[in-house]
Task: inverse folding
């Protein structure tokens, strides 16, 4: 009986200890906000530049310069933990994006710049009164410091083309970096024959604080990155048709019309393709007759075929067949007759 009472006592003690353990675990995992960090001496949004069409048509990038500076008592926690930036729609309620300071120099404190990028589908209305907020992170502050800036029309680019807006963004960043050089006492720019560009330090900060900056403002980098246009090109007979209209009623037009009727052809492309092939055969005949070699003719004909296709005089399908034949012939020439 005594042993049974001892077992029951142990069970009761363990059950009583369980809620206490849960409370201790929860208390240890929750941040303790005993005292707010020191507030910055200077806490400002200094300038804003909004551009469009910098990567693709109708995209939007809103760049801004800020200052989070302490004359004394700077926290040991980096700025990207203590502070963040939010961009709100013109209603002041809908959040469009959020970014943090890039902790590159002095843990992210002092002057810096950053940006919000939006693709065409998510881009806010152009020249709307967006609200840019710089605030303390509530995880570290009971009463976070906060300031806001409402964008005005003059903050928006009035330029249209991609090149113009990329140039505007690059010029803005160079101007900001000139101020950062003084504030940080760090060299960020260098002079070249192409103008003022970012040095390695400036480029590292720029690409870290604005991802993809080298594509958005390639002219301020020593190595430029640009998006290659890979859109499929169309092929038309517009040039050949325009030439047909130009020659209509002339001796050349009458001769071509005669050939068209002679061979019972329905359109210009068949006729001009035949003429192109006759020119190519003529080069081969000339090569064998005069220099006993067809390699010069192959080089000359490659230009004739490419030009005729670009002008709409030779159908691409015919060019593809000829290129295949050229490839086989080139292989035979290179490898040679080993028999």
Result:
């Amino acid at each position: 009986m005594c042993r049974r009472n001892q077992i029951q006592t142990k069970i009761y003690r363990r059950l009583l200890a369980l809620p206490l353990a849960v409370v201790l675990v929860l208390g240890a995992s929750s941040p303790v906000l005993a005292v707010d960090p020191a507030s910055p001496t200077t806490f400002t949004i200094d300038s804003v530049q909004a551009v469009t069409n910098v990567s693709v048509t109708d995209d939007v990038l809103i760049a801004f310069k800020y200052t989070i500076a302490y004359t004394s008592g700077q926290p040991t926690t980096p700025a990207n933990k203590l502070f963040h930036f939010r961009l709100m729609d013109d209603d002041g309620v809908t959040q469009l994006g959020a970014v943090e300071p890039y902790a590159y120099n002095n843990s992210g404190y002092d002057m810096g710049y950053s940006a919000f990028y939006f693709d065409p589908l998510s881009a806010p209305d152009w020249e709307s009164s967006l609200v840019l907020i710089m605030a303390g992170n509530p995880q570290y502050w009971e009463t976070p410091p906060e300031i806001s800036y409402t964008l005005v029309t003059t903050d928006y680019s009035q330029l249209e083309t991609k090149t113009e807006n990329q140039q505007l963004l690059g010029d803005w960043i160079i101007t900001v970096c000139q101020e950062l050089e003084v504030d940080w006492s760090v060299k960020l720019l260098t002079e070249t024959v192409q103008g003022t560009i970012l040095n390695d330090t400036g480029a590292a900060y720029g690409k870290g604080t604005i991802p993809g900056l080298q594509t958005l403002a390639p002219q301020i980098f020593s190595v430029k990155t640009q998006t290659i246009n890979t859109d499929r090109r169309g092929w038309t007979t517009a040039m050949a048709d325009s030439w047909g209209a130009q020659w209509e009623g002339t001796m050349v037009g009458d001769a071509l019309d005669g050939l068209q009727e002679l061979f019972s052809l329905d359109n210009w492309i068949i006729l001009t393709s035949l003429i192109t092939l006759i020119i190519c055969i003529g080069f081969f005949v000339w090569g064998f007759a005069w220099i006993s070699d067809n390699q010069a003719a192959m080089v000359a004909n490659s230009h004739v075929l490419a030009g005729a296709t670009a002008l709409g005089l030779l159908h691409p399908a015919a060019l593809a067949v000829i290129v295949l034949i050229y490839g086989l012939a080139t292989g035979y020439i290179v490898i040679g007759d080993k028999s």
The CA atoms of residues 321 and 327 lie 10 Å apart. Confidence is low (pLDDT under 50) at residues 9-33. The longest strand covers residues 42-52. The chain has ten helices and nine strands.
